[in-house]
Amino acid sequence: MGQLQTEIEPSEVGLDAQRLQRIDRHFAQYVSDGRLPGWLVLVARHGKIAHLATHGMRDVEAGLPVESDTLFRIYSMTKPITSVAAMMLYEQGVFELTDPISRFLPAFTDQRVYVNGSADRPQTRPATEPIRIWHLLTHTAGLTYGFHHIHPVDRMYRDAGFEWGHPSELDLAGACDAWAEFPLLFDPGQSWNYSVATDVLGRLVEVASGQALEAFFREHILDPLDMRDTGFSACEQDGDRLAALYTADRAGKAVRNDRFGRVAHHQPRVFSGGGGLISSARDYHRFTLMLLGGGQLEGARLLSNRTVDYMTRNHLPGGADLETLAMGTFSETANAGKGFGLGFSVNEDPTASKVVSSVGQYAWGGAASTSFWVDPREELTVVFLTQLLPSSTHPIRSQLQQLVYQALVD
Fold this sequence. Notes:
It comes from Halopolyspora algeriensis. The protein is α+β, with helices and mostly antiparallel strands.
């Protein structure tokens, strides 16, 4: 695959071209009224790109438009890539999903759980069981993020320098050692909380493979899939391709945020498997095609199709949905009817979320309002890229979903 472009007429794959234009018109209004700086949307069916559109600016102040090769900070859309990396090691017999993570990361031995008290003086008790690898993959480990602002342990993360980044002196190993010192929010497997779990999973990949996460990604995922634009920082020669980062003000308008944005121009000390990658629509489309293809793309097989099927089932305890099990909220999307697999949300009951979709659709998004999904039933993949923090500002993902599915007419 070379230049990113449409590959087939929409009508040849059951999509209505005029209805697809509704996507563009709708999100063009987000740009015209200042809610988004610019965006890119890609809709593919049966492995072929049927709709590709860009609108607005990758850098409003410089007058640079979003183009098909623009680079974006994908933040938590890194998580499915890290989850694939871990499952590649699982397929080699390196570990079992039930293994305690302390087997690889001894700092997580003898975890304690928050019971009561303030962030300064927490009362804790021993955890009833260790954090296991499947807990990391499903965000049921009891870990958290400092930016949640809903629990005393969240503040402990913030006070230690973990909110929208890491203390400058730490690498990934040091960050994991620090997180291991904090109490868990709950016993592993008992609830769901969006967290640094996938960063810890990335460190597990490093220890289990003997490679830095960046090197493992490059050798085993990015190069085999020809994801040439994806990495933990923007190359100097690609600097002008990287979109500027924006934050929503109180009115929901996009305001430039260079303090966060400039981080992507430099190689990080922490290779964040939870949110560190920069990518392009072309590259992430190739990643979704690999998933849709049951773990392989163009002769490069990363996973067995059975493993991909297993990853994209609901693994939450008792078959619960996120509405039932999740602590607090973490995005603008509805949790009802959504389970969670090994690295992806999994749609089990589209009627519960009140958004048209398919049973078995799996997905995730990033903090800067990016998102993707794979729908095996419809052989549909969708990627939406923009750069607005936080993702909970506007209902972009649910609106995109309804606009894509209404264009399916076969």
